[in-house]
Structure prediction request, 315 residues.
Amino acid sequence: MPSRPVKITHVHHACGDDQSHAHGALPAHHDHGHSHDHGHECGAADPSPTPPSGNASLVTAKIPAGYTLTRLRVAQMDCPTEEALIRNKLGGLATVSGMEFNLMQRVLTVVHQNNTLAAVETAIRDLGMSTEPMEASSQGRAPTEAVSKPWWPLALAGLAALGAEIVHWLGLPEWLSGLLALVAITISGVGTFKKGWIALRHGNLNINALMSIAVTGAVLLRQWPEAAMVMVLFTVAELIEAKSLDRARNAIRSLVQLAPEMATVQQADGDWAELPAKAVAIGQIVRVKPGERVALDVIVHTPLRKAASLMICMA
Prediction:
């Protein structure tokens, strides 16, 4: 089958590791004078860029002079809990004017004043999270992923919590139930208590802070089995959530790898040239060879009698 020319109607790239499709942009400081529906007042100290509206992205927005757009990979950023911590922390920096979050790819896009990236990374590390510039991982180095934890400590904590329950039911000495409960809480709850302390220290009453307070209260009330079992079950729930997100990330990564990185584009003089798919503009003509995947959203121009065979080939 000969090559078919297709016309680009709009450019749409898959949201891979080097793309930043965010859950939403939130300017930290801006002084434009229109009304807002997100419930905070506009600052009037320093002029800063107007945030993108609607579904616009900071990646495609015009960044004013004096500001830089940086994309950071935050390995510990899995859910809105971490997003809220980072948003509140960076929102207090006068050097930051906008943020976007991609929780699925663990990518933070931040617009900050020139030469202030170190302050942004320091603020994130203060939350117990690590950062890695996306540019570093795009230059052939594999991105740093969150280290998977072994399963046996959690299993040991579960057995200890179950032992505390059995000791309580059988009416055995309370000190034995308390000892087993403390073992279970120590093994399974160190991470939760650490995250909860960081959240409380920054004035954020998130789920980790609430769970830490609840378990500590149960221990002070000497409700040993309840404290141990709640902490173990919470840790199991977090583990299941992390595994589900990892599976979704791997599925998205596999889909992104199917998208061609190059496209054969017609030049102004009529010749054809191999160009990166990201460099193809709207309105350009792209030639698709037999068996080749279409790299962009296009309108296919082909004779009607050959449309059926083309659709079969593209499928």
